[in-house]
Amino acid sequence: MLLAYLPKFLRNVLQADRAPTIAEPAVNLPAVEEPALEAPTAESAEETVMQTVLQKVRPYSMVPDSGIEFLIRSVQSLFDQQIEGDFVECGVWKGGCAAAIKLAELALQPDSQRLLHLFDSYEGLPPVQPIDGPMAAGWQQAVDSPWYFDNCAASLEVVQQNFAQLGLLDARVQFYKGWFETTVPEFVKRYPETKIAILRLDGDWYESTKVCLENLYPLVSEKGIIIIDDYYAWDGCAVAVHEYLGKHGLNHRIRSIPDFSSAYIIKQAHREA
């Protein structure tokens, strides 16, 4: 009788070695329902991507987690809305934010063929001008401060090495070394048909922000995202943004990324209900 309770493969083994006996009555055991496995939700999948990317890029970025999380969600939003364009960052430092964009792209849409364009002097920031404000001048003079970060200098070789360690260094990542006033207009002249989905500006000062907006904003796709990292940090950056929007009569709202770490604009011709 107990034989009926054994797994089938054990019953077969035991029955092979025993002599024929009177057939045992069948025993109808109650079915045992196994707990159903919950399918992963979109929210849990997104959180997994978020935490994986954050862990990988933290060593290479000064941006708080909220800013990097916003980048990841921006990439997801662009895919969801099918907004065309490449990714552009002006002001790269060690490549953390750029790597976050690339990692998010690979996780969310592995077959994506968008380019990532990275502009930087790879030598640090240019000198502060009066329009950038006294706080900016004080920061650049405080060379012994733990927040100086060697004037935000990181060589091209260091950035490329970081990308290689993350498995991100390929032909779709393009580097442009030099001051924005030279490299950015040259890029637009050479690739005037480029479309930009995310434009991330992290050049700190007035002139850097101004030249990037003047040359790259026209290439941003409708409903593309412009992130201004230093909008709340430095006076000159905010002035450059206000001047550009006013000069061109743009009605865009300047919005805050959580924790006021930076600001962003959605390029949209008109407000939608």
Automatic annotation (TrEMBL):
It comes from Stenomitos frigidus ULC18. It comes from the Bacteria. The lineage of its organism: Bacteria, Bacillati, Cyanobacteriota, Cyanophyceae, Leptolyngbyales. SUPFAM superfamilies: S-adenosyl-L-methionine-dependent methyltransferases. Pfam families: TylF (PF05711). This is Macrocin O-methyltransferase. InterPro entries: SAM-dependent_MTases_sf, TylF_MeTrfase. Coiled coil: none annotated.
